[in-house]
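In response to reviewer comment 3 from the previous cycle, which asked for concrete evidence that the modeling workflow produces usable outputs, we include below a single protein chain processed end to end. The sequence was submitted unchanged, and the resulting structure tokens are shown without manual editing.
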Amino acid sequence: MALLQFVNNVGEDLEQGDVVVIASRQPDAQAPMGLAAIEVDLTKAAYDSSVCGVVYDRYVEHKPGDAYPPGADVAEDKRKGARAKGAASRAFSVDELERLDRTKIAPGQVGHLVVSGVCAVCKVDADVAPIKPGDLLTTSATKGHAQKIVDPSKATGSVLGKALGSFKKGKGAIPILVTLQ
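The workflow returned the following structure tokens.
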């Protein structure tokens, strides 16, 4: 499975199946074990060539620990989703992973994106055009969703993948084969 780690600094929960793009800002920190983690945003534009994958699951939890200076308003920072300087992340144990809802990635947490050659569930908006198996998908103007490519001349660099299911109208989720192009 081709997975990429990402940091959720969107300011809201990301969910399994959300379509994301590379954020213009990138984190200074490294993910656990020295692996790079990119920062992402929910897609908000059709045919966005910065599409980078589909949210798969939560990988690590951000733990501020004792990184706050004495007298700092820790509760206020946590309410705002702010992270302490020098804060650490830790991987979940196997027991913790079994009890977690890994389909939601809160701000400050690290998750996995499906980036290539893997079947994943993806949020779609079929109000643009009905989707059938085999249709190529791109980003949608509907936040966090994909849509059928209806104008191939705009699709260069913005292909997310191929629909493996159908969706006639409205918003929902279908399986797709992620094939970033």
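Confidence is low (pLDDT under 50) at residues 62-75, 77-88. We consider this sufficient to address the reviewer's concern, and the full set will be provided in the supplementary archive.
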